[in-house]
Design goal:
This protein has four helices and 25 strands. It is mainly β. The structure holds 2-acetamido-2-deoxy-beta-D-glucopyranose (4 copies).
């Protein structure tokens, strides 16, 4: 049973362990009799043997498209002889708790040499098995939606121990609003808008990290968990007042179809690259679309521009078209005539499509 007391930015949880097993089992993890796992030579009795499960890296941060290893190893203390029929089960709790009722889903189960992977993980996961007791999970070709909490559970007869590994994608959070103006998206439209920009709705943790890194934004946006929030580093009157400490200001859970906000999108570190198209003239929107294609790419999306700015140091003081019809430019090193002194992606909004600008393409 878990009881939580929710406070802004802080959840205090108290765990109560409820024993629902008839087996002799104690809170300290010891067990005193195990007759379930014969080694073929009769029953093993072992006293005070303990199953240890651990992860050398409980927080893993990886780039999209890369292969990642979530470590998990087990051993017995004291060591025991013989092969035991140990099972391993990896399960996953998605980071974007959009569906709060969604429980853990299976990633892989294995026993001996037999194993089975599930759903979206099928064919993409394997156990590393680089040494006895190594049950680390290797995931190939990380997706945007693979982030979350992975649980490695080792099951040996009555004994069952687990460890969790948090997987996050390296990425950048940015606010996004509709071409029609501020506060136009319901939840589903916000989800869709981020996806169109090669991004996902940001999770609370992603926005929180962005806030710690200095994101300050006075317009509320949807997050993946169905709340609307905004990050404030410098409290001010116009943005929730000066009485509140810096932090994430939350409107809490909002009705998905009824309420309208902007969106906080999350763009993972890019696979490709955004480039400023060298072109003799400035272009209207339709000309810009074909100019990118002629150069072998496509018009860049907003998420791709943010990711290239953040991870590849793209810095260019020229406003250019992007695929959503907005005009922006990325500045790593603030300087005169390139917007504010802080780094950032500057936006000129969504100008009329016949206006002429440069263009950012993606390849
Ligand atoms: C990931 O692993 C697969 C299969 O093992 C391999 O073909 C691929 O090149 C790897 N990708 C990266 C980015 O290392
Ligand atoms: C394991 O086997 C070794 C020799 O094979 C023996 O010396 C040791 O006592 C055994 N340990 C246990 C816990 O049975
Ligand atoms: C995750 O993303 C992949 C590819 O981007 C997609 O095929 C899959 O359906 C997604 N899975 C979930 C659970 O959203
Ligand atoms: C852009 O210019 C071309 C002519 O070069 C014109 O045909 C087209 O309609 C213009 N597009 C827009 C959106 O104004």
């Amino acid at each position: 049973m878990m009881m939580c007391l929710l406070r802004p930015l802080l959840a205090i949880c108290v765990l109560f362990f409820v024993s629902n097993q008839a087996a002799p089992r104690y809170n300290n993890g010891f067990f005193y009799q195990d007759i379930m796992n014969g080694d073929g030579n009769g029953e093993i009795y072992f006293n005070g043997v303990r199953l240890h499960v651990e992860s050398h890296q409980p927080l893993v941060s990886a780039a999209r498209g890369s292969n990642v290893t979530l470590t998990c190893t087990y051993h017995y203390e004291p060591e025991i002889n013989g092969t035991r029929r140990t099972r391993v089960k990896w399960s996953w709790l998605p980071a974007n708790g959009a569906d709060r009722n969604a429980g853990e889903t299976n990633v892989m189960v294995a026993m001996g040499n037999r194993h089975r992977s599930y759903g979206n993980f099928k064919g993409r996961v394997r156990l590393r098995r680089s040494a006895p007791g190594d049950m680390s999970l290797v995931i190939n070709e990380l997706n945007l939606n693979d982030t979350g909490r992975y649980r490695c559970e080792i099951i040996d007869g009555l004994e069952d121990e687990s460890v969790t590994v948090e997987l996050e994608l390296r990425g950048v959070v940015y606010p996004y609003h509709s071409q029609k103006g501020r506060y136009q998206f319901n939840f589903l439209e916000a989800q869709h808008a981020c996806e169109e920009q090669d991004s996902t709705l940001a999770t609370f943790d992603q926005l929180f990290t962005a806030w710690k890194e200095g994101l300050d934004w006075c317009n509320a946006g949807w997050l993946a968990d169905g709340t609307a929030q905004y990050p404030i580093t410098t409290p001010r009157e116009a943005c929730g007042g000066t009485d509140l400490a810096p932090g994430l200001r939350s409107y809490g859970q909002r009705a998905h179809l009824l309420h309208r906000y902007d969106a906080f999108c999350f763009a993972a570190a890019p696979k490709g690259m955004v480039y400023f198209l060298q072109h003799p003239q400035k272009l209207n929107f339709t000309e810009a679309v074909s100019a990118c294609v002629q150069s072998g790419g496509h018009m860049a999306k907003v998420g791709q521009l943010y990711a290239s700015w953040r991870f590849l140091g793209l810095d260019r003081c020229d406003p250019g078209w992007l695929a959503d019809g907005s005009v922006r430019y990325p500045i790593v090193q603030g300087r005169p005539n390139c917007g504010p002194s802080e780094p950032g992606v500057r936006s000129s909004g969504f100008p009329p499509k016949q206006n002429k600008y440069s263009v950012y393409c993606y390849q």
